């Protein structure tokens, strides 16, 4: 039984790219207030937009895929997207800092496992994966992490 729809590959890669960018944007910060205030909130705002992007692409995944990976909190990811998108100025910067420094790094290995599993099962097109690997867009995705 197939877990993924063949169209699930690119949304997962976009999520991985967004996480990678957030890691670059936040790796210098040791406190939530520093993250929030630095450069007129540039990294904070960029991270919020990428969190929205993560939620948007999680919503594009097939229900079958989401159901077959219960350790990945897709519902919470989508809920966070809605919260950020609809209450952008009311978002607690300490909560965002915890998400970007703790939750997203914990999510990443689960996504790598998903990619490895679905690629191994032949559910994703290797040509599409190779095209993504060659793309300038996915420069923050470590394709070797889930290569077969």
Brief write-up:
The protein has helices at 9-26, 32-37, 42-59, 63-68, 74-86, 93-120, 126-134.
Largest sheet: none
The percent range for strand residues is under 5%
Fraction of helical residues: 55-70%
Mean pLDDT, as a whole number?
94
Verbal overview:
With 148 residues, this protein is mostly helical. The chain has seven helices and no strands. The radius of gyration is 16 Å and the shape is globular.
Topology diagram in text:
Elements: H1 9-26, H2 32-37, H3 42-59, H4 63-68, H5 74-86, H6 93-120, H7 126-134
Question: What descriptors fit this protein?
Answer:
66% helix, 148 residues, mainly alpha, 7 helices
């Amino acid at each position: 039984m197939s877990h993924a729809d063949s169209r699930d590959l690119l949304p997962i890669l976009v999520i991985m790219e967004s996480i990678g960018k957030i890691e670059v944007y936040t790796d210098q910060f040791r406190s939530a207030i520093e993250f929030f205030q630095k450069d007129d909130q540039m990294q904070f705002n960029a991270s919020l937009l990428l969190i929205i992007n993560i939620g948007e692409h999680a919503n594009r995944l097939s229900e079958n895929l989401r159901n077959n990976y219960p350790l990945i909190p897709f519902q919470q990811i989508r809920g966070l997207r809605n919260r950020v998108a609809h209450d952008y100025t009311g978002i607690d910067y300490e909560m965002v800092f915890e998400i970007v420094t703790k939750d997203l790094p914990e999510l990443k290995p689960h996504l790598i496992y998903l990619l490895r599993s679905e690629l191994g099962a032949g559910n994703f097109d290797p040509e599409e994966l190779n095209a993504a690997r060659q793309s300038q867009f996915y420069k923050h995705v470590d394709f070797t992490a889930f290569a077969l």
